[in-house]
Amino acid sequence: MTKPMLSIRDLRREYDAGSSRVIALDGVTVDLTAGTFTAVMGPSGSGKSTLLHCAAGLDRPTSGEVTLDGVRLGDLDETGLTLLRRERIGFVFQAFNLISSLTAAHNVALPVRLAGRRIDQAAVMAALDEVGLADRAQHRPVELSGGQQQRVAIARAMVTRPAVIFADEPTGALDNQTSRRVLELLRDLATGRGQTIVMVTHDPVAAAVADSVLLLTDGRLVDHLDGASAEAIASRMARAEATC
Ligand SMILES: Nc1ncnc2c1ncn2[C@@H]1O[C@H](COP(=O)(O)OP(=O)(O)OP(=O)(O)O)[C@@H](O)[C@H]1O
């Protein structure tokens, strides 16, 4: 059997909230194979962002284990986690998170610079070309539309060729047509390049582009849908929300 690219074992994350404890994740176990595109869904407060943050080494679980590309995150100190994030993980956020004073090309090159590596201009341009923005390389974010900014963010997440890309509501701020373009790009990264994509979304249409959907409720993984249609996902979500 092939080893999973991302293995999550009995993940639990509790938060102190005054006198009580909030259980954000309550024993989540899942394996994701390399080259797959997975959507994470669930009602508000069900633990989607917490799962993404723990899986990406941005947050430490209370207990349980995450293994990414063969590395046990729990074995790493903060420096080790930072290096792992720089070298093996890409991030795409709803708010794009581009640096406003930098051109598109400089934004894309940023992870390479942060990793202290030589910037390969050809690789930066190839990433921009892949997202259809080669002619916008010298533009700053303010000169780009929301969809174009998100495509720059995807080019930035691709440029180090990370094993796993985590996307938190990447289409949340985009219109339908632009969303479709961004989702197609993520789809191509999984299918064409074998990268593993994990995307949090509230949108069943976006989730239907993924290979499978993980459904969280109250910090628990309650369903795993494979190849479901947007309608099937929407109706499963409605049931999950009704039981909250
Ligand atoms: N830093 C924190 N301190 C205390 N409680 C937290 C903290 N972060 C998250 N929580 C709680 O953990 C639970 C899960 O939160 P999380 O943000 O993972 O949910 P979500 O599914 O991503 O929600 P949404 O769809 O609304 O973004 C919620 O009850 C939330 O209030």
From TrEMBL:
Pfam families xref list = ABC_tran
InterPro entries given for it?
AAA+_ATPase, ABC_transporter-like_ATP-bd, ABC_transporter-like_CS, ABC_transpr_LolD-like, MacB-like_ATP-bd, P-loop_NTPase
CDD domains linked: ABC_MJ0796_LolCDE_FtsE
User: Where in this chain does the record put each ABC transporter domain?
Assistant: 6-243
GO molecular function terms here? ATP binding; ATP hydrolysis activity; transmembrane transporter activity
List UniProt keywords, sorted A-Z.
Answer: ATP-binding, Nucleotide-binding, Transport
Asked if the Swiss-Prot or TrEMBL record annotates the protein with the keyword Cell membrane, the reply is: no
A GO cellular-component term linked to this record: plasma membrane
**Source organism superkingdom:** Bacteria
Which PROSITE patterns does this chain map to?
Answer: ABC_TRANSPORTER_1, ABC_TRANSPORTER_2
Q: Respond yes or no to whether keyword Transferase is given for this record.
A: no
Q: Which PANTHER family match?
A: ABC TRANSPORTER RELATED (PTHR24220:SF685), IMPORT ATP-BINDING PROTEIN (PTHR24220)
* The protein's name in its UniProt record: Putative ABC transport system ATP-binding protein
State the organism named in the record.
Paractinoplanes brasiliensis
